[in-house]
Amino acid sequence: MTGRPPIGPGIRGRPRIARGLAAMGVGRGHRVAVLLVDRLKDTIRRRRENISSWGVERTFLSHPAVAEACAVGIPSGVSGEEVLVAIVLQSEASAADLLRYSERDLPYFAVPRYVRFVKSLPKTPSSRVEKYKVRVEGVTEGSWDRELHYVKLSR
Question: Which of 117, 94, 112, 95 has its CA nearest to residue 153?
Fold first, then answer.
């Protein structure tokens, strides 16, 4: 084996995926399909990247102050969609703190631009979040904008 890492051209720049594949014994020359876990209509498309809303929600739900989270893509004039996360808090936390927390587990392009704190998320009778209602509401007056608050992400 050469001194090069055992990854193919499709996952360069994604070290977490490369490490996971290497741990499973997948090396150079193997063909691998990466599965995006989400419903097609809930997938967020931002600057040529597919973002799993489920992955964004899972990251925020792992924070102890978050009771519920819903990630959606909202139209952007420049880059397809921007990521908005609607959050129900169970204890005190600021939007900047939550974004810094999410930065540990999410790639920089998946960290939400907008954070909206809500008292409750709209749900169906079977207790599923109605994401289309959050998407239709979009950015509201009380939404927190990462770019307006000059929060820079590390890459």
Answer: 112
Nearest in space to 130 (alpha carbons), one of 120, 119, 140: 120
Instruction: Give the separation between CA 9 and CA 48, rounded to whole angstroms.
Output: 17
DSSP 34: P
Number of domains in the chain: 2
Residues 86 and 134 grouped into a single domain: yes
What does the alpha-carbon distance between residue 27 and residue 62 come to, in Å, rounded to a whole number?
Answer: 31
C-beta separation of 112 from 85 below 8 A: yes
Q: Is the dihedral of CA 137, 142, 148, 151 positive or negative?
A: negative
pLDDT tens readout for residues 81-91: 889 999 999 99
Residue 83, in any domain of the structure: yes
For residue 80, being part of any structural domain is answered with yes
pLDDT (average), residues 122-131: 92
17 and 34 Cβ atoms separated by less than 8 Å = yes
13 has pLDDT over 70:
no
Q: Which stretch of DSSP H or E encloses residue 86?
A: strand 80-89
